[in-house]
Amino acid sequence: MKRDNIFWGGVLILFGVLFLLQTQGLINNVFRFFWPLMLILVGGWIVLGVYWKPAISASETFSVPLGEAKSVRYNFAHGAAQIEIAGNAPTGMAMIGSSAAGMNHQSRLDGDRLDVKIETGPSMIPFLGPNGGLWRYQITKDVPVTLTIEAGASTFEIDLKDTLATRTEVKVGASTVNLTLPVRGVSVLDIEGGAATFNLRVPDGTAARISAREGFSALNVDKNRFAEIAMGVYESPNFSSSPDRCEISIKAGMASVTVK
């Protein structure tokens, strides 16, 4: 919890200085500065977390056995955070992940489908997380999976290349999402975001159809791989016949989107 202590220690020092200035008559009202200072502190903490990533210790991990499940449905609900998701869980495990105060993880077998739900602290507290502020999740690559990911102002590294992800839904605020799609099978990717940055990678040999709606500050699609067949619609030449393909739907505001 060192990072938490540093943050709250910094908050107390800063407001202690402000109260001191008020008692000296140099400022009139400390609370006029409260929200601007909190925004500066939280924003600085998020930026600092991008470069400060100490290793997560073994004591801060949890695991969810796959058991007899034939498929897994993951639901991630995060506040502001740095998050890594990759399909490299050991055989027999539905998930291995990092754990910290303020986190709740549940799993339940519904027929032959395992439901795994991850919830962390509120979005206004981005520093509430593992040491280093980086949440890491390893998901199964042995059975079909679906993922629903919801987050605030976060940074995502999502590698589904080796998974059997059939459907992935990503709903984020002012976030950066770097996502690699599955190599095998047929999958669907639905993305919704505000002022976000999406970097999507379609593996070589995987076909894709991209449908982009709403306004974008930048939309960059590799037209050597995905020809524009209609306004805002791009498609691989062999999309309909390919056994390995992905349908990508993007609905975003002033977002930057790259597909390659």
In short:
By secondary structure, this protein is α/β, with parallel strands linked by helices. The protein is 15% helix and 45% strand.
Detail the poorly predicted runs. Answer: 54-59, 123-128
Give the fraction of residues assigned to helices. Answer: 10-25%
Question: Gap between N and C termini, in Å?
Answer: 39 Å
**Assembly annotation:** single chain
The general outline is flat
Q: Strand pairing plus helix content: what structural class?
A: alpha/beta
Number of strands: 19
**Please, what is the average pLDDT?**
84
The run of helices and strands is HHEEEEEEEEEEEEEEEEEEE
Total helix count? 2
Sketch the major β-sheet: 10 strands, mixed
**Strands side by side in the biggest sheet:** 5-6-2-8-10-12-18-14-17-16
Radius of gyration: 21 Å
Strand content: 35-45%
Description:
The protein has helices at 2-23, 34-51, and strands spanning 61-65, 71-77, 82-86, 93-98, 104-110, 113-119, 134-139, 144-151, 155-159, 164-172, 176-180, 186-193, 197-201, 207-213, 216-221, 227-230, 233-235, 245-252, 255-259. By secondary structure, it is α/β, with parallel strands linked by helices. The two termini are 39 Å apart.
Notable characteristics:
260 residues; alpha/beta; ten-stranded mixed β-sheet; nine-stranded mixed β-sheet; 19 strands; flat
